[in-house]
Write a structure and sequence with these properties.
Strand 4, helix 8 and strand 5 form a beta-alpha-beta unit. The protein is of the alpha/beta class. Helices cover 49% and strands 14% of the residues. It starts with a strand and ends with a helix. It has a 6-stranded parallel beta sheet with strand order 3-2-1-4-5-6, sandwiched between helices. It contains 9 helices and 6 strands. The protein folds into 2 domains: 135 residues, Rossmann fold; 72 residues.
Length: 213
């Protein structure tokens, strides 16, 4: 029986995934020849820390030397680019209704690759904070967060669900044995996932299917 629901933030609770994709292109605007590779890398690793992504982009895609001070500067510029836009982005259809109906039925958590202080601000600005037991972000990885939540709740991983829109969300669920519900809005690598929703108006039905499986 599912007792805990863990949700990603961007693209699951708030329609903000595209904001961050374009922000990476803006952040590396002088490197037009690498934009496709940068976007592909970001989308493949949606849900992990921007600090990890920035380091990889600079060193592996652009082939430039590691520079910790530059990485921190780029991360701060990225935050400035996205925070206001994410705060202004609409909540995913069905999210508020699901969170309201889930109170008393499930313990709800957020697990995101967004830096935790920023994530807490954004969750508050969207008026969602009171729905969650905890709001967790980077630098802690999602597999670690899922294990932490399972331990804190004293439930087996089969009593939890992870809801995400990225391959890193699916991979974290697979690594820890937590059932995974993919938010799928079109063709892509999550289209083969067993449990899928188009938006959160379908999430309760998906959880019911997992309970019945």
């Amino acid at each position: 029986m599912i007792k805990v629901v863990v949700l990603d933030f961007d693209g699951v609770l708030v329609e903000s995934a595209d904001v961050k994709t374009e922000a990476f292109a803006q952040l590396f605007s002088k490197h037009h020849a690498h934009h496709d590779a940068i976007r592909h890398y970001h989308l493949r690793h949606a849900g992990i820390s921007r600090h990890v992504k920035i380091r990889h982009i600079v060193t592996a895609i652009l082939g430039e030397p590691a520079d910790e001070r530059r990485f921190e500067d780029l991360a701060e510029r990225f935050r400035v680019l996205v925070e206001k836009q994410v705060a202004a982005a609409p909540v995913v259809r069905g999210a508020r209704e699901f969170l309201s109906a889930a109170q008393g039925r499930y313990h709800l958590y957020v697990a995101s690759g967004t830096p935790e202080p920023e994530l807490r601000r954004l969750t508050g600005r969207h008026g969602l904070s009171s729905s969650f037991v905890e709001v967790y972000g980077s630098p802690t990885t999602k597999p670690t967060l899922l294990r932490r939540i399972a331990a804190a709740e004293a439930v087996p991983v089969q009593g939890m669900v992870m809801v995400g829109d990225g391959e890193s969300d699916r991979d974290a669920a697979d690594e820890t044995g937590v059932p995974f519900v993919a938010r799928v809005t079109g063709p892509g690598p999550l289209a083969s996932c067993r449990w899928q929703v188009r938006d959160l108006s379908e999430l309760q039905a998906a959880i019911d299917q997992i309970d019945a499986a």
